[in-house]
Design a protein that fits this description.
- By secondary structure, the chain is mainly β.
- It has a domain of about 110 residues: Alpha-Beta Horseshoe (Leucine-rich repeat, LRR (right-handed beta-alpha superhelix)).
- The protein has six helices and 18 strands.
- β6, α2 and β7 form a beta-alpha-beta unit.
Length: about 350
């Protein structure tokens, strides 16, 4: 037998004897049962590639023998709300590519330390505790060359509470192969210096950086195609720092945001000015621009918008007046765009 699947069967135990009779098993799926324990004999299934124990809500721990599954590639532990901890030697699972778990105490970031074969998406939530920077350093994200998508959620809190975030941000540095990055409620753009090394980054989502006054430097990311920025409530000006230029007088060659196709700003309630440098080619491939809930933004006229195919301006009182169809002072600059939504 190579595959054993028993779904939603109210099973409470796995017989050690039955495991010993299935040593050639490749796939084991006990999702949706009522397991309260997994026997240590599970470690005998050395050929196992896939194990799904999700939705076993009363499962409290896994035996250390799980770490002997040297060929295991996928481990699914989602919705195991009572799972208190994982075995200490999880790092022995050197072939593990996909690990699915929930935001509980069972899975520690440090457990990922030598799991360098992890593929796909990694979500890290509720960062902000004093030990988080150390745990992230142990995780060695910079060695996870097969991770394509990283999502990071900091704890919400006031400015004083978030002073410890700086060391966490520094420790987060992922491998340069990363293609998609989401960062929620971060407060230290200065510590994101490593973002410039993400040469393969295609999608970037930045949400809820409530205490940051300036956007990070992103203009020199060569592969960035989608950029979504929301709820930066202290940002008043988006200027040359956003482009990746240190000083306004700095001479820059080449193209900034060379592959950017979709750009979105939302809920930037104090944003007033968008300043570019006219001598530099910026966003030549931009086809979609969306600006919503930015009531103080005064103009887009410093942005080259001739390549746009879609423009959305919503809940932006000043801009809506400037670009009102037929009568706005700037209407002639956008009237050629095929897909327009104003107001």
């Amino acid at each position: 037998m190579r595959t054993l699947t028993l779904l939603d069967s109210s099973i409470t135990t796995i017989s050690p004897g039955s495991i010993m009779q299935m040593k050639c098993l490749r796939t084991l799926n006990f999702s949706g049962n009522k397991l309260n324990e997994v026997p240590k004999e599970i470690g005998e299934l050395i050929h196992l590639r896939y194990m799904d124990l999700s939705w076993n809500r009363v499962l409290k721990e896994l035996p250390d023998a799980v770490c002997d599954l040297c060929n295991l590639q996928t481990l699914v532990l989602e919705w195991c709300g009572q799972l208190e901890k994982l075995p200490k030697a999880m790092g022995k699972l050197i072939n593990l590519k996909h690990l699915y778990g929930d935001d509980d105490e069972a899975l520690k970031l440090g457990d990922l330390g030598i799991m360098d074969q992890l593929h796909g998406r990694l979500s890290i939530r509720y960062l902000g505790n004093k030990d988080d920077a150390s745990e992230i350093e142990k995780a060695q994200l910079g060695n996870k060359e097969h991770l394509s998508h990283l999502r990071v959620f900091f704890q919400e809190g006031d400015e004083e509470q978030r002073k410890g975030d700086e060391e966490i941000v520094k420790a987060l540095q992922p491998h340069q192969n990363l293609e998609s990055l989401d960062i929620w409620w971060c407060q230290f753009t200065e510590s994101l210096y490593w973002i410039k090394s993400l040469r393969n980054l295609r999608k970037l989502y930045l949400y809820g950086w409530r205490f940051c006054e300036f956007l990070p430097s992103l203009g020199k990311l060569p592969s960035l195609e989608i950029l979504d920025i929301r709820e930066m409530k202290k940002v008043k000006k988006v200027g040359v720092e956003f482009l990746g230029i240190e000083e306004e007088e700095e001479q820059v060659s080449g193209i900034l945001f060379p592959k950017l196709k979709r750009l979105s700003f939302e809920s930037m309630e104090n944003w007033e000015e968008w300043a570019f440098v006219s001598e530099i080619t910026i966003m030549p491939r931009l086809s979609e621009l969306r600006i919503e809930s930015c009531p103080k933004l005064k103009a887009l006229r410093t942005l080259t918008i001739t390549a746009l195919r879609t423009l959305t301006i919503s809940d932006c009182r000043i801009l809506e007046g400037e670009y009102e169809k037929g009568v706005g002072k700037e209407w002639h600059n956008i009237s050629h765009i095929p897909n327009l939504t104003i107001g």
